[in-house]
Amino acid sequence: MASREEITVCEDEVRSRYSHLEKMTDLVAVWEVALSDGVHKIEFEHGTTSGKRVVYVDGKEEIRKEWMFKLVGKETFTVGAAKTKATINIDAVSGFAYEYTLEINGKSLKKYMENRSKTTNTWVLSLGGTDYRVVLEKDTMDVWCNGQKMETAGEFVEDGTETHFSVGDHSCCIKAVSSGKRKEGIIHTLIVDDREIPEVVE
């Protein structure tokens, strides 16, 4: 049974973590965007009487505009370590109804994520009680782990290439092997401590 003090501390933590939510009376949209350095949460407030616009990325205020006479338009900002360009489009649907769409690098979120699944591989694994999200950017062969770009060493092997890096005291290797089929191209496999990790689809 948790003591009263522990419960108070937990409540305070929750309150401080969600304190910006209490103020978000005009919250109209929330998106989750999976990038190489992690999954980012974008929240958007739109006051349809005052024209107020507020954009939060991972709980941090990025844009705040009070008293805007034009209720439609767009807000552009960046997300994540690589400063990926994001734009929220505000369009009037009818009367006082509005539609909010998020674009990442000029593509709709859906298109961007579909394209991303072709250009990246993502693995999620747990090592020693810690969760890790490993992302390979196939075009650059950059490897990201929990928001950090990893130091890697690549080598050619008999059936393809291997990209080596370490997570804590665990040795990791991404093997790239040709599938032999033109449509499939190259198959990337993550091996951690001689164990193959299944890929996840975000």
UniProtKB/TrEMBL annotation:
Function of the protein = Plays a role as an inducible effector molecule that mediates Fas resistance produced by surface Ig engagement in B cells.
The record's PANTHER family line, in alphabetical order, gives: FAS APOPTOTIC INHIBITORY MOLECULE 1, FAS APOPTOTIC INHIBITORY MOLECULE FAIM
Query: What taxonomic lineage is listed for the species of origin?
Result: Eukaryota, Metazoa, Chordata, Craniata, Vertebrata
Family, according to the entry, reads as follows: Belongs to the FAIM1 family.
The protein's name is: Fas apoptotic inhibitory molecule 1
Location comes to: Cytoplasm
Please tell me the species this chain comes from: Fregata magnificens
- TM ranges: none
Sorted alphabetically, the keyword list is: Apoptosis, Cytoplasm
The keyword Lipid metabolism is annotated on this UniProt entry = no
